[in-house]
Amino acid sequence: MSGGVLYVSYSGMLEPLGQSQVLAYQENLAADHPVHLVSFERPEDWARINEREVVAQRMRTAGIHWHPLRYHKRFSFLATAWDILCGSVKGLCIVRKHRLTIVHARSYVSSVMALMIKRATGAKYVFDMRGFWADERVDGGLWSPSGRMYRVAKWFERRFLLSADHVISLTQAGVDEMRKFPYLREGMPPVTVIPTCADLARFKPLALDKGTQFVLGYVGSAGTWYLFDVVAACFQQLLTIRPDATLLIINREEHGYIVARLAAAGVPEAAFEIRSVDHADVPREMARMHAGVFFIKPVFSKQASAPTKLGEFLGCGIPCLSNRGVGDMASLLEGEQVGVALAEFDTASLLVGVESLLKLVALPEISARCVQSAHRHFSLDEGVARYQAVYESLE
Length: 395
Known about the structure:
Blueprint: E1 5-9, H1 16-29, E2 35-41, H2 43-46, H3 49-62, E3 65-70, H4 76-98, E4 102-106, H5 107-121, E5 124-128, H6 133-139, H7 148-163, E6 166-169, H8 172-178, E7 191-193, E8 215-219, H9 228-241, E9 246-250, H10 255-264, E10 272-275, H11 282-286, E11 291-293, H12 308-315, E12 320-323, H13 329-335, E13 339-342, H14 347-361, H15 366-377, H16 380-394
Helix pairs in contact: 1-3, 1-16, 4-5, 5-7, 6-7, 9-14, 12-15
């Protein structure tokens, strides 16, 4: 058993993201590595006492020592600075009291705390970067590339990468981009690629009769990073080949926007269905789909992104049509022959993509191939094994 791990997450464990992408891993790692987990919980989440107790019981059962702190939002910059101070002091006390040897920080804000703790205690520091956060702010139109906030964030990113004893990246494409950073050209810290995991115990093929009508599926958000207009144009091309096809959309809050974009693309109302379902019911809805489709803006920051929905589609045995320029998605889809990745979005390219997707769907072995790919790349067990190897390398 190791000297122990302090895991710092600026996301709360009462949020779905914290439970699926932090707690799910640490529950499996705590048996071999004593884990103390510092998280920042939103007041509205903390007020849900029953849900809080369920999460706390999960922690106790796994042997995780949970140290929840309050997340502050008002006066954004000052609130974050206060949270960093509180998290750094709390983490420093935990590391010294329990003689922990590793500080594992999820993303950038947590890494500011981890870096201070490392310098004060000598603990090994794992930078779990989760993507190019500062560049995402620029690509999303929130920051200017010449603005002070971006420059400060990139300065911290440089400190994190140069100080890290190990770096976790969601994609190999992200690692390849980091190797081009001038200050890393002479050498990078050890890096392990661990994509976001999908719950493959839930997202799996279900024994439902899909029928003869072709169903193209879309799941999740249609805005921000997603190119839903391209999805609409793509489905319009599908209708020229399969006039009976249906577009099944699982989305909770953007129905008006989706209907407007489909109408603008000339998609008939009778050709699509929009459903809002609880997350627990999504796998059953996906079981109706023959193929999945989604397109993500191919901007620089997305080189370091690994969309969870890809793992969920594949886990359900569903091949996908998507695009290049986003993490390792293209190499996975086409390298393992579980989907199609487009480089262009013009009409001719969309038509070729749809035709290629239909050929894949027709293969009798495609469902099994998709499931096998999901388990190779997105399974929780594989992610846990890679984290385990990282911790052992730092002992």
